Amino acid sequence: MSFHKQQPLALLLPELKAWFDSELGQEFLAAEKQQVDRVVSTLFGMHLVQLSVDCRIQMYQESPVTHCFSVVPTLELGLADNNVIANNAEVPLAHESVDVVLLHHALDFTDSPHQVLREASRVLRPGGHVIIVGFNPVSYWGLARLAKRNTGIAPWSGHFISHRRLSDWLKLLELTELKHISGYHRVPFEKVKWRNRLAFLDGFADRLPGHHGAFSILLARKDIAGMTPLRSGWGLRRLISLPVAESTARGSLRKNREHR
Known about the structure:
Blueprint lengths: L8 H13 L1 H18 L6 E6 L14 E6 L10 E3 L12 E7 L8 H11 E12 L4 H9 L14 H10 L2 E9 L8 H6 L2 H8 L7 E8 L24 H13 L1
């Protein structure tokens, strides 16, 4: 299945940022960050990179990783020093150089989401983790997208990739899925009064089997066959170097035995 053609991200960004700044967008981001914080706080390492579409949004404040930075699509005034300007499908990072990759709607707003995920896997070290945050098509928001995606209005023009599709991609890239969660079950009305009037639907969606929140979060690990991934280096025993006899010493021992 091919994905529909999107506007270049540079053209879509003003509209997408305006939505994130709206009352609904802020409420959505707050619920999203609450769940992401719980995931990133359990992952350790030296380097974490976030691939995102809005440079103002940082989802890694609760991460214990030593060095956190973002890859952002465009240069903007006031951009922090811990940002790298690049295309999410062509990340200028070394192979297997980071411990955690956080994809914040990076797969929703690109013409080649599989390539973005491939790049995330490429820069991820063995035993490292990738967190995929995106819109969930199996939700009230997915239903709203069916009616609005042809308008080209953000965020409804995003891909809304299903969990089944993402699971298949993870397997192809030899990434092991560890956790799948979702959240924010409110209906996507811009006006708060309508969201409040239909609040009874929130609990209904939450009680349904499966994951039906507006956003979906997948956690996966990059495994290598025959190796046991380690969460961190803390508490590991140091290896003791055993002395090995040199070849000359072994030769002397052999001669001594022969003379006996």
